[in-house]
């Protein structure tokens, strides 16, 4: 028996149990974390865990992102939303991946997809099948039916399917403000979260270094056993109180500014199935279509272009995509950010969740998924009492550091294979800016494709399939035949036939995004019963 | 009212058909037509019974889903709950048509008055793709229609043989329902097991050579599923 086990057996009440979770900060991260925890609390147990969320009325929330990862479907189901209600309340649309325009060469036909559905067949087979059939479509279109579905603006599911089931893997684009609002209402009304609208003025620490309470301006002291720092860039607890350093990765990922704007959807314009990410001379532009509006933003490196130039780049994009309406890039909101993450995310009885933990440019929409994964890791191994905090914090920190580092490398991959010649792009290819682990992997991939074994953690944010899509989308030369035999040519051919048949079936059976969302709110078509 | 039309890429380029099983799409039926070549697939889950036509001169075979009119015990809230869905249901709202002469190759017709015709782009499956080529769904329907057509045509010989050997007998099946009442299934015929056992080797050889023996046994074996229907009915009554 372990030492702590003996202690528990001998004196079960010595350590205060973790019963009161206090989330500091609203916004997407705070409300999502609070709802996830509250929805998993076992209300039948003796002394159930309570969740309190303190949201400052003074601080406007910044939508951390409008793109999610497919994990969001499971998250919403756990929290307890019907899918159609969520879609309507958040003006959401389906996201089946990202389309990258102009990243490899900037030329006219420079386009590739990173779809959410993994390639058909095993890691190696999909790549070798594509590589051995020269002159065909790009890797993604060869490996998955999803790019063809995206090209036609089709939805990933049929209306009569059960909630959150898809014919193809998918996530959502959403209005972050509406999403936080929906979570708040559901959290308070259905999940029993206590909502305190007040400003935290001071933090009270006990002898052991743990936070005992936060003091608010009007409500006074709010005690807790576990505190979640969801205060965004302010990082009130993890930085303000615990002074955990921030590890800047600006030397790897140069972007530090974004000009964000919303433009109305043109009438009858198709609703895109993916986030469009269009490269420019010193960064890239996101374009996220919701049913009523598009969110567009120019991400750039202030070291490489001036703000005025960035506004011109955004203006040119808006004009080219026909979506300006009355909006002009002059009205775009300027956001400054630092890319990086904390040295530690869990210190004492405080966990940093959301932007307080780290922030990276919105490429590949990692912000919300990191909230989900962080909270899931906490819930999977929820500490019973204060004594249980230390080993869990150590494990949590190692896990989250691993994840942040992998995301940084994955984002960097998008830049280093480019053949664009602008100074920004050349700087990205400077070996001194490329993480060692990434450089080593690239070396391996000259001889063989990215394999599952390269990314073998549980709940890997970007599995080997994602790396394959970006790697070969960017024009990386696929490996020659291996000296070892890995699968029979017959099996690979059969797989190709299956994939083609699947694509044809999907094209026939999936409705367009527009049709899906126009019909949202009306139940699947029902007609009068005819008797035979 | 039905309104049958020949299916063409020109007229039906953007047509979408709802292929899922639902009561208001016409699946609330107590049985559907089947044919000897399908008996093997049907008998795994449904009883196969026979019914005389109104003129009392020929039989049809039916896969049974319920014990009273409009009752389909295999239709759940989220669709078809059996593994197999008989062809006569799966091909709805399509049917085999022929030109005026009545022979020649079968054509794919569609009942445009069927509730399965989707009136919203948000529902259903396309029949033709953007280029006017049949989709996998239509290919599958066409192949099922072909099989049905051939199966129905070939079944006349089967029913002749059953009549010749007097292998069908009227049957009744009773299920006790709530309040001491019974639900009685009448007006159907089933394979006469006694009669089948008493056939001599010449008759058996003749049936075997014509390919009728196997479907006869399949139909006989399927009668065990009358109990399945009764069990599903009781379960449904308990729930509702």
UniProtKB/TrEMBL annotation, chain B:
InterPro entries associated with the record: SapC (IPR010836)
Q: Any idea what this protein is called? A: Multidrug transporter
- Tell me the organism: Qipengyuania algicida
């Amino acid at each position: 028996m372990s030492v702590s086990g003996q202690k528990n057996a001998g004196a079960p009440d010595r350590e205060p149990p973790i019963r009161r979770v206090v989330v500091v900060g609203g916004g997407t991260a705070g409300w999502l974390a609070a709802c996830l925890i509250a929805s998993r609390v076992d209300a039948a147990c003796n002394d159930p865990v309570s969740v309190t969320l303190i949201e400052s009325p003074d601080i406007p929330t910044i939508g951390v992102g409008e793109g999610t990862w497919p994990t969001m479907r499971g998250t919403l189901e756990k929290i307890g939303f019907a899918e159609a209600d969520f879609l309507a309340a958040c003006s959401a649309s389906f996201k089946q991946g990202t389309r990258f325009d102009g990243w490899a060469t900037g030329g006219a036909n420079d386009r590739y997809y990173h779809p959410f559905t993994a390639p058909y067949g095993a890691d190696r087979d999909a790549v070798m099948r594509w590589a051995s059939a020269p002159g065909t479509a790009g890797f993604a279109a060869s490996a998955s039916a999803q790019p063809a579905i995206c090209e036609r603006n089709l939805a990933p599911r049929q209306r009569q399917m059960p909630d959150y089931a898809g014919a193809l893997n998918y996530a959502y684009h959403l209005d972050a403000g509406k999403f936080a609002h929906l979570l708040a209402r559901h959290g308070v009304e259905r999940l029993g979260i206590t909502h305190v609208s007040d400003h935290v003025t001071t933090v009270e620490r006990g002898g052991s270094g743990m936070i005992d309470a936060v003091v608010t301006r009007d409500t006074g002291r709010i005690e807790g056993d576990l505190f979640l720092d969801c205060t965004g860039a302010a990082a009130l607890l993890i930085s303000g109180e615990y002074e955990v350093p921030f590890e800047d990765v600006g030397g790897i990922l140069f972007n530090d500014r974004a000009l964000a704007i919303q433009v109305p959807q043109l009438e009858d314009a198709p609703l895109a199935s993916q986030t469009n990410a269009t490269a420019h001379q010193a960064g890239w532009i996101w374009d996220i279509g919701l049913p009523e509006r598009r969110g567009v933003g120019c991400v750039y490196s202030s070291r490489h272009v001036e703000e005025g130039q960035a506004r011109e780049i955004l203006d040119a994009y808006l004009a080219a995509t026909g979506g300006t309406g009355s909006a002009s890039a002059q009205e775009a909101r300027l956001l400054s950010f630092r890319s990086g993450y904390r040295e530690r995310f869990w210190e004492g009885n405080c966990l940093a969740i959301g932007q307080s933990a780290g922030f990276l440019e919105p490429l590949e929409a990692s912000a919300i998924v990191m909230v989900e994964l962080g909270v899931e890791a906490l819930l999977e191994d929820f500490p019973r009492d204060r004594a249980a905090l230390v080993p869990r914090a150590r494990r949590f920190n190692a896990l989250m550091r691993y994840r942040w580092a992998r995301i940084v490398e994955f984002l960097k991959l998008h830049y280093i294979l480019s053949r664009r010649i602008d100074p920004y792009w050349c700087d990205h290819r400077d070996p001194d800016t490329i993480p060692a682990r990434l450089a080593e992997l690239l070396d391996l991939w000259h001889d063989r494709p990215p394999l599952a074994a390269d990314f073998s953690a549980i709940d890997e944010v970007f599995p080997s399939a994602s790396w394959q899509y970006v790697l070969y989308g960017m024009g990386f030369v696929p490996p020659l035949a291996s000296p070892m035999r890995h699968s029979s040519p017959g099996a690979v051919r059969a797989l190709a036939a299956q994939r083609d048949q699947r694509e044809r079936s999907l094209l026939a059976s999936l409705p367009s995004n527009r049709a899906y969302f126009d019909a949202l709110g009306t139940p699947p078509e029902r007609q009068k019963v005819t008797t035979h | 009212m039905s309104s049958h039309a020949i299916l063409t890429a020109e007229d039906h380029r953007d047509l979408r058909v709802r292929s899922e099983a639902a009561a208001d799409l016409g699946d609330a039926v107590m049985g559907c037509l089947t044919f000897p070549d399908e008996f093997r697939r049907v008998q795994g889950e449904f009883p196969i019974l026979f019914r005389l036509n109104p003129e009392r001169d020929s039989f049809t075979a039916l896969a049974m889903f319920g014990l009273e009119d409009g009752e389909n015990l295999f239709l759940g809230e989220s669709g078809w709950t059996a593994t197999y869905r008989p062809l006569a249901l799966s091909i709805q709202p399509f049917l085999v048509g022929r030109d005026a002469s009545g022979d020649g190759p079968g054509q794919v017709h569609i009942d445009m008055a069927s509730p399965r015709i989707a009136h919203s782009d948000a529902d259903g499956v396309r029949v033709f793709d953007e280029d006017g080529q049949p989709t996998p769904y239509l290919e599958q329907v066409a192949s099922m229609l072909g099989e049905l057509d051939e199966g129905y045509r070939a079944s006349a010989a089967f029913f002749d043989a059953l009549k010749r050997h007097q292998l069908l007998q009227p049957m009744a099946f009773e299920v006790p329902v709530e309040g001491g009442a019974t639900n009685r299934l009448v007006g159907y015929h089933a394979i006469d097991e006694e009669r089948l056992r008493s056939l001599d080797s010449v008759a058996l050889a003749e049936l075997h050579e014509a390919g009728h023996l196997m479907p006869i046994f399949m139909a006989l074996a399927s009668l065990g599923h009358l109990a399945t229907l009764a069990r599903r009915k009781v379960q449904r009554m308990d729930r509702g």
